[in-house]
Design brief:
six-stranded mixed sheet; about 30% helix; binds NADP nicotinamide-adenine-dinucleotide phosphate; alpha/beta; Rossmann fold; about 325 residues; seven-stranded mixed sheet; 2 domains; Dihydrodipicolinate Reductase, domain 2; globular
């Protein structure tokens, strides 16, 4: 069985979707790339006649990966229903539908079961949330979670091409302050509750993915001048006292986690960039608290890899 696949968006995530679909050998009959304007471009080493994202472009499409912009005028809000009505399953990288009832928000290592009975639209989680829940899931299963406090160190490619231009070319209209040689503790905009958009995503999406609607989560999200790879310092309170050995075992056996138990073998974004895994290091245990550091490529596990894994899960379930 092979599939006709459309990618909406030819930006950083669109490009990684092409490379991940190829690297993971997703069974593709035809691969279409759609964006706002038609052109011929090389994406991940392949030439594409990029088509305009419009309803008719989804005729015959089995899987449509959306990686355009968000909001009322964004690609998913405008076109996801058009794609679904033509028979496609939509996997959306944006935040428009993630918290909607009836829309599964899926990180396959954690909640693949949520795909059952989907209505054609599946949401991919926020990049910093994805790597965090991959690392929280084995702790939840082994010990039970009481409280999570996370601080992030997020790469500029998390803002797409414009974020990279802000770091590399000094583009000034992307972040509220210069990003080069700086750290900006605001990602998105601040709401009435004082949380930034990114912080609210981490709280609400983690609860939905982990099926822990009352989990106490406190997030501080920070943009730093790193090209690719988000890092997180995570503090977790669990339901009972734990030993280091059992925490290392939980991380060591968990799917999707690349883990070295050596205290001085810590992951960094420079090493994680280009790798689809979620790296864990600097684990510390005291009583019922666990501290650790995790790093993952925001464009891969944080976006494209997770989206392709969702499609693979659907293909597997149909067989
Ligand atoms: N970057 C990350 O780490 C990351 C992680 C998780 C999720 N996401 C989400 O993934 C999406 C894409 O992010 P990105 O980093 O790839 O952004 P990007 O580099 O800025 O690229 C955006 C692409 O979307 C296309 N596009 C925008 N509006 C469109 C529309 N209405 N119809 C069709 N195409 C449209 C643009 O087309 P043109 O080229 O024709 O202008 C461009 O190719 C966003 O929703 C983002 O929030 C990003």
């Amino acid at each position: 069985m092979t599939y006709t696949v459309a990618i909406v968006g030819a930006g950083l995530v669109g490009e990684r979707l092409v490379s991940e679909l190829r690297r993971r050998e997703f069974p593709i009959r035809e691969l279409r790339v759609l964006a706002r304007s038609a052109r011929t471009v090389e994406i991940a080493g392949e030439m594409f006649e990029v088509g305009v994202a419009e309803p008719e472009a989804f005729e015959g499409v089995n899987f449509a990966f959306f990686a355009g912009t968000e909001g009322e005028k964004g690609a998913a809000v405008q076109l996801a229903e058009e794609a679904i009505s033509r028979g496609a399953v939509v996997i959306d990288n944006g935040s428009d539908f993630r918290l909607d009832d009836g829309v599964p928000l899926v990180v396959p290592e954690v909640n693949e079961d949520a795909l059952e009975g989907h209505n054609g639209l599946i949401a991919n989680a926020n990049c910093s949330t994805t790597q965090m829940v991959v690392t929280l899931a084995p702790l939840a299963k082994a010990f039970g979670l009481k409280k999570v406090v996370v601080s992030t160190y997020q790469a500029v490619s998390g803002s797409g091409r414009s974020g990279v231009e802000a770091l590399e070319d000094g583009r000034e209209d992307v972040y509220p302050k210069p990003i080069a040689r700086n750290a900006i503790p605001l990602i998105g905009s601040i709401g009435d509750d004082g949380l930034s958009t990114e912080e609210r995503k981490m709280v609400l999406e983690s609860r939905k993915i982990l099926s822990l609607p009352d989990l106490e989560v406190h997030a501080t999200t920070v943009r730093i001048p790193v090209h690719t790879g988000h890092s997180e310092s995570v503090y977790v309170e669990v339901e009972r006292d734990v030993e280091m050995a059992e925490v290392l075992e939980a991380f060591g056996e968990a799917p999707g986690i690349v883990f070295s138990g050596d205290a001085d073998d810590f992951p960094t974004p420079l090493e994680a960039a280009g790798d689809p895994g979620t790296f864990v290091g600097r684990v510390r245990v005291e009583g019922s608290t666990i501290n650790y550091w995790c790093v993952s490529d925001n464009l891969l596990k944080g976006a494209a890899t997770n989206a392709v894994q969702i499609a693979e899960s659907l293909v597997k379930a149909r067989v």
